[in-house]
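Subject: two folds for Thursday's group meeting

Dear M.,

Sorry for the delay on this. The cluster queue was jammed most of the week, so I only got both jobs back this morning. I'm pasting them in the order they finished. Each block is the input sequence followed by the predicted structure tokens. Could you check whether the formatting survives your parser before we put anything on slides? The first protein is the one we discussed after the seminar.
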Amino acid sequence: MASRWATPIVELVQAGASPKFDDAAVAVFLRLGYFIGDDTPFESVRAFPVGGVLRWSLADGLHVTGTKPGPRVDSAIGKREALESYVDRFRSAVSRSLPADQAATVLPLSGGRDSRHIAFEMHRCGFRPGLVISQRHFASRSNEDARVAALLTEALGWTLTTSDQASAPLQSEHEKNRIFESMTQEHAWFLPSARQIRAGNYSAVFDGIAGDVLSNGLFCRAAWQAKYDASQWPELFRAMGVSGAPDGAITAVLAPEFAKRWSFEAGLARWKAELDVHSHEDDPISRFKFWNRTRRCIAPFAQRYLQGLDIHMPYLDADVADHLLSLPRRHFESRDFHDEAIALAAPQFAHIPYESKSIDGDLMGHQASLLRSMAKSPRYWRSAALNQHWLRPRLAAALVSRAAARRVGWVASAAAAAHGIESLAAAMA
């Protein structure tokens, strides 16, 4: 019998944990899209901490302690040396983790860097995964992943399977919330691929988690750093928030009681306290993102969707992660470090393009589709967490007019996130 990734929150509450909301934690979640530190939606339930140690004794009971990450930057290392060491360490990490059964191995492949680097190292070892899969997206994002993944697999001589997106995005959102216990606003897009993988006879999957934040400077952004250096905390908190959901949308969509409890100010204070944990770092923003978004939002992706499979995460291999975490911020400011590493590792494939970030999806079209689906669902007309006086006229307008739905589509993400937290609490009643 496969072990569970974590004890469900509902079971913890049923076992005696208090269902009282952690208001500051929820306030952060609504704005960033994930929980930070060891927070969950409830004060009495905590995530296992970084570097966690659990001790129990008959005399003292249960104690859980954590070790916060410390500074370990090698300021003297040059970029070429850093790149060569990265390539060697990553090559070793992938080769050590290759399963014996190629046919039972899955590689989700995107148009970006992380899965590509894994694919090139597999190919170098003569390893051919049984399933290489790419996923078409909701309308909010272009399908560059599928396009570029096809170019990659053609060059490697592999077969690509491409999953179509689900036709009911709100249903996918609800299913994602069930699987992830409403603790992330991401990942609904991957449901079709997850179902296909679970339906097959597969035992292992490779996950490119942390490749972008550790080796491509994903959050090494000059505008964010300028706000950090100027101590512009409200502005930085907003800048790091969920795109498409301005704070005005969150405040407007919440019922007055919850708007007060889950306020911007409450979220700001909790977020700043967690950001301060990383203030001693060379790149505090990227480290905050790694120890919070990567750990709390991205890590559960494969663990929950593909529970029971062996999940290989070469970017979190100790040799790889320790090396990348030791590199100074200056190596990532140009956002080309991972590109150069991949070109060094597999120069014969350097001609294959990456996905084009200039091709945007129809974000408002996707949000409008969500809103129109909400308008057909009684649960959104009855929700106590949502401001019915404000929301119902907009749901009614969205129901009768696609144009109206597009105009107020920005409401959808905030409403879905708040309702997800409310539904989690209701499941405990």
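Second protein, same layout:
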Amino acid sequence: MRIILINPTDRSITQEDVPGQVDRQAINRRLGGSLCFAGKFSDGHTLYVDDDGLLKGEQDCFEMPLLYLRPLAGLGVIVGPETEDENEDITDATLSLQEVQNGVRWLGTMSIKIDSIQHETGDPNMSHFEIQPTYKAVR
């Protein structure tokens, strides 16, 4: 099965042929983290990234403004549309590498500062995290 990899570290977009049927666990393993749905293209192709990517310290990032409006950290994997039967099998990615390249913007390395912010009521159960991205110069 053909998948497309977006690697912001070396700024490459490549294809990979994975033997057999690809499922969400296989995508998880390829990402090296927790699977996170990042967006669906109009033709049904899906982009997945590592859900914890922004929390892993310094990460190289990219964005796909027409698909998702925030920075995406670490590897991205694009797979084809799911079948419309009860199995919802993932199919081959048929997008060209050039189509994907045209939609990607490289952001360089980003580190994240996470602060726990107390809710204005003072209730400790109402605190939340605030993520403040800091970009380094694009290589």
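Two things I noticed about the second structure. The helical segments are 24-31, 97-103. The longest strand covers residues 105-117.

Cheers,
T.
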